[in-house]
Write a structure and sequence with these properties.
Helix content is 35%, strand content 13%. The chain is of the alpha+beta class and 142 residues long.
């Protein structure tokens, strides 16, 4: 698994295992990688991964992520766009699954937080609340 940059500074994660290299090489227009002795078997591929990454960096930087999204979906390889914090908190799937949730009592611009991604059947998640101020509960505890 490696992180690559597409055109327009979009970063993505791509997993290219030796069994997926033929499909990826053909799909990205680099069938010559399949006859390159540096990548001819799993051991050589692993030993020369830095060289392959450099080649892929050059290839991926030419096209926007929309292009690579279509390419990777057609060859059925595992990939994903690396999202910034502002994109993560707005992700509808994370909101629907109660992973990004409202944060009560924090104030200011802090309105959401990451909740536990684990859901236990029959157990309702407790709403997220701000962390206590330093020393806030000293009198109660002491």
């Amino acid at each position: 698994m490696n992180v690559y940059r597409a055109a327009a500074d979009t970063w993505f994660v791509l997993i290219v295992t030796s069994d997926k290299l033929p499909a990826v090489a053909e799909a990205i227009g680099r069938p010559d990688l399949l006859t390159d002795p540096r990548f001819s078997d799993p051991q050589k591929l692993t030993a020369n991964m830095e060289q392959l990454i450099a080649i892929l960096d050059d290839v991926f930087g030419v096209q926007p992520m929309a292009h690579w999204y279509d390419v990777f979906n057609k060859v059925r390889v595992t990939f994903g766009v690396v999202r910034g914090p502002e994109e993560v908190v707005a992700d509808p799937q994370l909101k629907l699954n109660d992973i990004v949730v409202p944060l009560e009592g924090a104030g200011g611009k802090l309105t959401s937080t990451i909740s536990s991604p684990i859901q236990v059947h029959g157990v309702k998640k407790v709403p997220a609340k701000r962390a206590p101020e330093l020393g806030e509960h000293n009198d109660v505890i002491l």
